[in-house]
Amino acid sequence: xxxxxxxxxxxxxxxxxxxxxxxxxxxxxxxxxxxxxxxxxxxxxxxxxxxxxxxxxxxxxxxxxxxxxxxxxxxxxxxxxxxxxxxxxxxxxxxxxxxxxxxxxxxxxxxxxxxxxxxxxxxxxxxxxxxxxxxxxxxxxxxxxxxxxxxxxxxxxxxxxxxxxxxxxxxxxxxxxxxxxxxxxxxxxxxxxxxxxxxxxxxxxxxxxxxxxxxxxxxxxxxxxxxxxxxxxxxxxxxxxxxxxxxxxxxxxxxxxxxxxxxxxxxxxxxxxxxxxxxxxxxxxxxxxxxxxxxxxxx
Length: 299
What we know:
By secondary structure, this protein is of the alpha/beta class. It has 3 domains: 11-90, Arc Repressor Mutant, subunit A, CATH 1.10.10.10; 95-164 and 271-297, D-Maltodextrin-Binding Protein, domain 2 (3-Layer(aba) Sandwich); 165-268, Periplasmic binding protein-like II (D-Maltodextrin-Binding Protein, domain 2, 3-Layer(aba) Sandwich), CATH 3.40.190.10. It has helices at 11-23, 26-33, 37-51, 67-90, 103-110, 114-120, 173-179, 201-208, 228-236, 250-255, 283-297; strands at 56-58, 63-65, 95-101, 124-130, 144-149, 157-171, 192-195, 221-224, 241-245, 259-260, 266-277. The strands form 2 sheets. Strands 3, 4, 5, 6, 7, 8, 9, 10 and 11 form a 9-stranded mixed beta sheet that branches. Helix 1 packs across helix 2 (26-33), helix 1 crosses helix 3 and helix 1 (11-23) packs across helix 4 (67-90). The N and C termini lie far apart (68 Å).
């Protein structure tokens, strides 16, 4: 029976021609297709014979498409792209959830836990959007966001507490041994204080360190960072003391890379919340990721 499409060249010959038309080299086309240079040349000769047209001009070190070869290459490439699109259209879109977090939350809390996520959710890709600006759920296709502050965060949004803000003063053990542990507010003057947008050092010291007897407390030198993760990294390298969320340095404290300067912790009443729109494009998938995040936070 005659094909309704009419006589067609072999698919292997067309693949060889399409690859050779891009590389203008039979050897490189063969490497791409996993066959020998001779096999590509043979396929091209058979194709030219079937068409009754010359597709390439052969030169000592290169190939040049003929006018007919250029026209044919454009059509063949378009046909392969249509085949690829048709095949892709049969496959369901991979499930994914986009989570917006700050760079500090990503590096100091989320990334160390991702191995557990991939083990438990092999069929759902997690897309991490790490940014300091407030992401928009609709315009940026964000499914979940971790936001610092106090609810409510806006109409049509749900908010689940991951963990309360609990600030601890930390420094490298080497720095504390070298400069001596501070006992009073006056002792802090021996240290550089590392600040970020969420480190109320003045309030913390006023609450948790007694004033130096009979002397005015010196003003400590300060370094300011726009991200908490930078203040933590500076503390790790012995540059000064950082006042940061306890959950972000829990691993460093447990391994001894950082040590608490004071045992006192500061609870501010704020917290880190998992925020999401009430209407979700894939509610069951998003609910699974939300449950995993809450379990990791012990919420």
